[in-house]
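Lecture 7 notes: from sequence to structure.
We start with the chain below.
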Amino acid sequence: MKLVTYSYKKQTGVGAVVADDAIVIDLAAADRALARKESRKPPPFLGDMIDLLEAGGKGIQAARKVMKAGLKRLGDTPK
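Predicted structure tokens for the same chain:
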């Protein structure tokens, strides 16, 4: 899993790079959607790279789960 910090429209976020480096999944946004679906609160550490790394294995596990959910939503051939 490749993680990045990115800027878009003057906002900074943490993302997972997928689809042969063509797509960045916004981890915080994707997890907010997943959390609503699972009726849970999103963790506070997916919006900042330092917070994510400080969360250790728990953070990486959450990021991986969100990335997989994002890939599933994108389908077999992300565009």
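Points to note: The mean pLDDT is 92. The chain is about 45% helix and 25% strand.
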